[in-house]
Amino acid sequence: MAENATERLIMRADPQRCLDTITDFEHYPEWAGDIKEVNILQRDSQGRPTEVAYRAAAFGRSTSYTLAYDYSELPGQLSWVQTAGDLTASLDGAYVLTPTDEGDTDVGYRLTVELKVPLPGFIKRQAEGRIMHTALRQLRARVELAPRRQ
User: How far apart are CA 69 and CA 65, in angstroms?
Assistant: First the structure.
């Protein structure tokens, strides 16, 4: 059964800076703790990665999965679906970027995870929490490293 999780966090950066960091997939291993390797498999006519293969740490081992990205709802949303995975049957989600009146960005993260192997509920929730932590808190740390635009 698929598990759904959502979380939001304010980033002290404008939406474009957030989106630039999110779509800089090649540099994920520098700041996303569980991501060990990223390979861009396909790009669209604008040069944006549309199919990305990942190798990540999960459950004390290495896991691999491939995500297909959908840019059709930019600038407000970047979504993806899993096209291949060794531990996950689905790993689908989206970043939702909403500018705030203060010039920051409210970043929402939605994720639907379905594992190929059955695990107890508390372990699934622990894994989701770790994914959300990486997706938002480590993203915020990376985004806020750059100087704010005036």
Answer: 13
